[in-house]
Sequence to fold (340 residues):
Amino acid sequence: MSELKGGLIGCGFFARSHMQAWNMLPRADITAVCDADPDKCCTFQSDFNVPDCYTSAEEMLSTAGLDFVDIVTGPASHRPLVELAAKYRVPVICQKPMAPSLNDARSMVDACTNANIPFMIHENFRWQTPMQALKKASAQIGELFFGRLVFRNEHDLYKDQPYLATDKQFIIYDLGVHILDLARFFLGDAEQLNAITSSVNPKVVGEDVATMLLKMRSGAASIVEISYYSHLERDIFPQTLVHLEGSDGSAVLSEDFQITLTTRSGVQKIDASPSIHPWSKPKMAVVEDSVVNINRHWIECLQNGLTPETSGEDNLKTLELVFGAYQAAENSATFKTIKP
Ligand code: NAD
Ligand code: 89V
Fold:
């Protein structure tokens, strides 16, 4: 199969991980990059030896002859950029969170559907090696009736992502979107959600701690705990811990990617450590390796005409939970999802 020609928009912090991941995948090649800031674009182009560089996304999409585009800008620009990709009928990947409102997100999905182009949200947490291994293990524990997903640390992520300290909606929008997606990955879609939020770190504007309780459509309960102000004996950022219980046993992902699978026939220990790539910071390996995995999934979908797991349509259900959580926290009420 011939190599796919890709373009990348947004040459900031996380685009470097995207680029390293693309460079590991022989079936795709990023031949053009774009950033509204010409200095950033030039530096990125030369750091990664990319042939073409643009400061206008429209110019890139209309002239570069791309098979797909990877949007790695912040959420405020996602809708106009995805709609531009749809205008030029270029299959599109867009970073999370999909958009600042459900209305914008729905318009993005509609634009891609009308243009008949594949649209994937770059929701990488379910592509982490330990999450894929846990999903496989959970097939052995029967009908799931309980899940707890925990992401608690006090990592100084404001250094690399300074915008997070000033965003009015912070942890549920930026990080909760990943963990709520994981809840759906393991336990299926949700029908009810309740949330309690707190703003603990005085240097941060939005909420930095949230606890959510979900009733899944299957009847299972899940608890989603997220915090960026937890001073613990050991800081395990960016690990997510997961505890699943089913009718035939339990599957638990503990610190350092160790899974304990307990069934009626015994206990099995599984090491689900991610690959540490030469370009990856060891602490960030679980996230960076997941970028390689999801990018590989995109190539497979594009080359074989398959729908990506985290298509725009699918991700609307995760985003609905994000905004539902803010609504529920504000009203001290239970949010009920609309779609069956
Ligand atoms: P950043 O601010 O470092 O980089 C964004 C870049 O996009 C900037 O260089 C900016 O000039 C450029 N840009 C903005 N609008 C543009 C436009 N219309 N045309 C061309 N360029 C434009 O941001 P970041 O920290 O890299 O985050 C980018 C996205 O990645 C966010 O949505 C964030 O949530 C997501 N992210 C995901 C993960 C993950 O693990 N999945 C990790 C970090 C960031
Ligand atoms: O998704 C994010 O924006 C990052 C994280 C490191 C949690 O993946 O902050």
User: Anything to note?
Assistant: The mean pLDDT is 97. The first strand starts at residue 4 and ends at 9. Residues 275 and 289 are 6 Å apart (CA to CA). The chain has nine helices and 15 strands.
